[in-house]
Amino acid sequence: YDKQIQRLGITLRLGQEINHDFIREQNPYVVIFATGSKEFVPQIPGINGPMVFSAKEMFEQINAGATLSGKSVIIGAGLTGIELAHLIQSHGGQVEIYELKDRPAVMPMELKLALQSAEQDGVKVYYGKRILSIENGILKVEDKETGRRDEVIADRIIRSMGIIEERSLYESLK
């Protein structure tokens, strides 16, 4: 893409703090914000409490050599959550995944294969579960269909509910 940027006369600024005044000074014809994404964290009581980690934090801990004995509960049965579950299980941990959505009848092949592999290794996946709260390693869930409530005790709870666009810079400059 470097040749295309040069050919088109585009000014590319990387690693530079941008604010409202800077943009006004430059008086550009157009500004493209490529500010990335951030973790989606829903409004659930205790979601940022002790013993609750993001998927990214868990991948970093595993890469740093952390031992993952005990029970891990992952919130979110997307590809990241399933791959993380499989990894934790392969490092000797016990894993359960809780997903709000019902199990899809059709899913992308890579998700289907990852899920099959994880389940064959003992990962348990529960669909249709609403997360009510998290407190001291206890995940309170409700079955969407029956309304039955359960408490799940874990050594660690991991958020893996997807990502959303990072809009803070855009919003501040509107």
Overview of the structural elements:
This protein is an alpha/beta fold and 174 residues long. The chain has six helices and ten strands. It has helices at 2-8, 20-26, 55-63, 79-90, 109-120, 168-173; strands at residues 37-39, 52-54, 71-75, 94-99, 124-127, 129-135, 138-143, 149-153, 156-159, 163-165. The strands form three sheets. Strands 2-9-3-4-5 form a five-stranded parallel beta sheet. A three-stranded antiparallel beta sheet has the order 6-7-8, with no helix packed on it. Strands 1-10 form a two-stranded antiparallel sheet. Helix 5 (109-120) links the parallel strand 4 and strand 5 (124-127). Helix 3 runs parallel beside helix 4 and helix 4 (79-90) runs parallel beside helix 5. The mean pLDDT is 89.
* Anisotropy-based shape: elongated
| Biggest sheet details | 5 strands, parallel
> Widest sheet: strand order?
2-9-3-4-5
Number of strands: 10
Output the radius of gyration: 21 Å
N-to-C span: 28 Å
Compressed to H and E, one letter per element, the order equals HHEEHEHEHEEEEEEH
Average pLDDT reading: 89
Outline the low-pLDDT stretches. none
**Class from helix and strand fractions:** alpha/beta
Tell me roughly what share of residues is in helical segments: 25-40%
Q: What portion of residues belong to β-strands? A: 25-35%
Regarding quaternary structure, what we see is single chain
Number of helices: 6
